[in-house]
Amino acid sequence: MIIKRYIVNTMNEAMTRIRYELGRDAVIISQRKIRKPGIKGFFSAKSIEVTAAVENEVNEKKQNTVKGNSDSRNSNELNNMELNSIELNSIEAIKKVVQQENENVNNSRVVQKQNSSVHKVSKQSDNNSENLMSEMMEMKTMISSLSQKREPTITGKPIENQKSDIEKILFDNDVDSENIENIMVKIKNNKTEKPDLEKLKIVLKEMIHITKPKLQGRIVLVGPTGVGKTTTIAKLAGKLALAEGKKVGLITVDTYRIGAVEQLKAYADIMNLPFKVVYNMNDMDKAIESMSECEVVLIDTTGRSSKNKMQIAELRTFVEKADTKNIHLVLSSTTKNRDMKYIIEGYRILNYNSIIVTKLDETATYGSILNILETAKIPLSFVSIGQNVPDDIKELSADSIVSLILGEDTIC
Ligand SMILES: Nc1nc2c(ncn2[C@@H]2O[C@H](COP(=O)(O)OP(=O)(O)O)[C@@H](O)[C@H]2O)c(=O)[nH]1
Ligand SMILES: [Mg+2]
User: Fold this and answer.
1) What is the pLDDT of residue 176?
2) Is the predicted pLDDT of residue 160 greater than 70, yes or no?
3) pLDDT for res 96
């Protein structure tokens, strides 16, 4: 008796081959749908595995013909067909053996999958498929191990989000993650017996640099639009002219924005201060000259986007004309941390030597002060805490800024 197994796409194809190769007396013993091995099998339609049998004598002649034909077939066709020959006594016995064999094949495929081992096959294409499969299994393991990391722990918090109390305080007050990391390292390096909170305060205080600028000569304020440059100029003018009785002059080079000139002029009129508008470089020289009598000349500038290098370069020529080391970069505490970094870097070519942080009254957390100072590495001179001219401007000590950053104190 001869048994043959065919892997075909349709039953019609199977029947044609069986009749042709085994003859009309052949019987179908089993049929089942299978996938091609390897990754290709996942993306292609299922094939049919058909097993047929025939008595030896009936098919002897036919077999010889088939052998001759098979040799002349192209290799693709042969790839689709597996031939097995077994000698047995009855069709029933064959059915049992085939059934047993199919079960074994299925079991071995399950085990193979579980072990994710690369199945050795002779064909090169299948080798590639198996390699791909193995890589996919590896990726799957990696992904599952990553997702396990994020699974809740016994405390209910994901492992990566488990923060120490110190980290949590800093995080809750919007100190950025890079600074938190640096601070934690510094705390660890402090080998004294002090509690961590004490160590934290020491570390923060060391990071906060304050400057007490001499409000003398020409003072230039630069920074993006709407951060409060003009308002801060008015506050400083009020402080110096009204409270300290100094002779103060105001200059604006902000002729770009509608109403900007009028805004500063209004303050100059109220405080009865000399005021000049600068439209070009020549005007700048003349305006400065005209204020030679003034002890302090406050110069307001146009808010520029730090991304526009041309505009910043143009502003630089005005700032250089002022010929001063008293240049303040004005930043709003409400600006996003990432944007803040761009602004700080973009304005660096103006050689500012102090930072003024405004709108502290509009924020609930003060970590931004630390973020700004750490990025700029330039000291803080003033903070602005509201719209009132001239009162809402302050010089803060490092201790009071530490209290603000830790949420122990608030501005308003
Ligand atoms: N809440 C608050 N508003 C401020 C502060 N400083 C300025 N402002 C307001 O911010 C807006 C823009 O200020 P302005 O001085 O014109 O900004 P500039 O474009 O940088 O000159 C105005 O409405 C100001 O009153 C501050 O410290 N707190
Ligand atoms: Mg302005």
Assistant:
1) 95
2) no
3) 64
Span from the CA of 363 to the centroid of ligand 1 (angstroms): 14
Q: Is 302 in the pocket of ligand 1 (CB under 6 A)?
A: no
pLDDT tens by residue, 42-99: 566 778 888 888 877 544 444 444 444 444 344 334 334 444 444 444 556 555 655 6
Is the pLDDT at 122 greater than 50? The verdict is: no
Residues 329-347, buried b or exposed e (16+ Cβ, 10 A)?
A: bbbbbebebeebbbbbebb
Distance 273 CA to ligand 2 centre (A): 17
Atom of ligand 1 nearest to the CA of 386: 28
Whether the CB of 384 sits within 6 Å of ligand 1: yes
Atom of ligand 1 nearest to the CA of 393: 27
Extents of the domains making up the chain = 2-115, 120-162, 163-205, 208-405
CA 250–ligand 1 middle distance (angstroms): 18
Which class would CATH give 208-405? alpha beta
Residue ID of nearest Cα to ligand 1 atom 13: 228
Is the model's pTM score more than 0.70?
Answer: no
Nearest CA to ligand 1 atom 4: 387
**Ligand 1 in reach of 173 Cβ (< 6 A):** no
